[in-house]
Amino acid sequence: MELKIFAPSLQLRSFIKCYYVCESHYTEYVKDVFFPDGSVEVVFHAGTDFYRDDEKECWAKVIGQITQPLTMKAIGEGKSFGIWFLPHTFSLFSGISMNELNDKTIPLDTIFSQAFIDLVKNCLLENDVNGLVEGTNIYLSRRLNISSNPVKEKIVEHAIQYILTKKAGTDLDKLVKDCNISNRYLQKIFIERIGFSPKFFIRIVRFQYALHLLTGCRPDSLTALTYLAGYYDQAHFIRDFKEFTGSAPSQFHLAKHPINQHFLGL
After folding, report:
1. In the chain, N or C terminus with fewer CB closer than 10 Å?
2. Hey, which residues does 50 pair with through a beta bridge?
3. 96-132 pLDDT, tens per residue?
4. Can you name the CATH fold of 150-262?
5. ∠ CA(94), CA(100), CA(101), 5° rounding?
6. How far is Cα 9 from Cα 247, in angstroms, rounded to an integer?
7. Domain-by-domain residue ranges, the chain?
8. Cβ–Cβ < 8 Å for 155, 181
């Protein structure tokens, strides 16, 4: 697989992490497991078919928050285009409460216009990457619906940045105090805008950081990694890792993830 990353327009960089285009050549079925990463994606596949539980998914789809290991298989030769939203932003383009999409994939034409979907398909088939990125920027800029509640938007953005920065060191009591809100209101915002509770989001952020350490700098031992990632003890780390990947850290190898390995750490 060949993967290329593209930045969204300046207007959209507070809402979209990146775009990506990848080319696949799967002459036989390729199986892989995907992990929770705290983000929602819109993905288009032209020439490659993806299956979940042996059921073929729509070629243009929204992938909701993943809360547990997701096994997929793919076959075909073609190109894919992805829009990787920041954890709290997809509802601004869709108007959907994010908890409704957890562990689900839905056809994109239930949310986005057919004209945009056709534009993406044509650009992929014609290998027009510039037109693809430009057309996506224009369409999403028009769809963006900034909330009429600017205070709420500031709370969400501050909470996400705080957790992404502090990771396991996040103090939720301090966060709600700084935002002058209640724990209950913070919970409500997260369910609506991200899909799950702040505590579960913190677990995913910590797990992703541990995964980054495991695949990147490779600490000398699992014990060292455990404390670097902010876990209380090794048993706690192994339990979380198994819950989110389906395997123990000692059994994790990038070679077992022919598709997912290209997206880890983005």
Report:
1. C
2. 74
3. 999 999 999 999 999 999 999 999 999 999 999 999 9
4. Arc Repressor Mutant, subunit A (1.10.10)
5. 75
6. 38
7. 2-143, 150-262
8. yes
